[in-house]
């Protein structure tokens, strides 16, 4: 598990390889990641948007931006957490993801970024 804390917000990431399949006559490698966002600060916060940089060993980097996470903009009071799962497809058995969440602190009304630690995506059969 990979973890990082930014301004009292702890991000934990766990990944798994889901298999190989064909999509549009091309081989794809499917990965799932589970993220837990834990508010360890003294203030209530809300996740408003996300930014991802997806690296694939055989393809150009992909940038993904959007509101919330899987259709939600969770509000986290101190001590609360939000967990969600999502996934990505790569054209190779190796890659990585990194990014950040744009959040707002309800006490100060200030917006801030929470960094998502870089995590690797690798198919077990391709490892030495």
Element layout with pairings:
Blueprint (H helix, E strand, L loop, with lengths): L1 E5 L2 E15 L2 E14 L5 E12 L2 E9 L7 E2 L4 E10 L3 E12 L5 E12 L6
Antiparallel strand pairs: 1-2, 2-3, 3-7, 4-5, 4-6, 4-8, 8-9
Question: Would you mind describing this structure in some detail?
Answer:
The protein has strands at residues 2-6, 9-23, 26-39, 45-56, 59-67, 75-76, 81-90, 94-105, 111-122. By secondary structure, the protein is mostly beta strands. Strands 4, 5, 6, 8 and 9 form a five-stranded antiparallel β-sheet that branches. The protein has a four-stranded antiparallel β-sheet with strand order 1-2-3-7, with no helix packed on it. β8 (94-105) and β9 form a beta hairpin. The radius of gyration is 16 Å and the shape is elongated. It starts with a strand and ends in a 6-residue tail after the last strand. The relative contact order is 0.28. The model has no long low-confidence stretch (mean pLDDT 95).
CATH topology tier name: Immunoglobulin-like
For the termini, the CA-CA separation is 20 Å
Outline type: elongated
Radius of gyration, taken over Cα atoms and rounded to an integer in Å: 16 Å
CATH superfamily: ApaG domain
CATH architect. name: Sandwich
Assign the CATH class: Mainly Beta
Share in helix: under 10%
Class per helix and strand makeup: mainly beta
Give the low-confidence spans: none
Number of strands: 9
Spell the H/E element sequence.
EEEEEEEEE
Number of helices: 0
Q: Average pLDDT, to the nearest integer?
A: 95
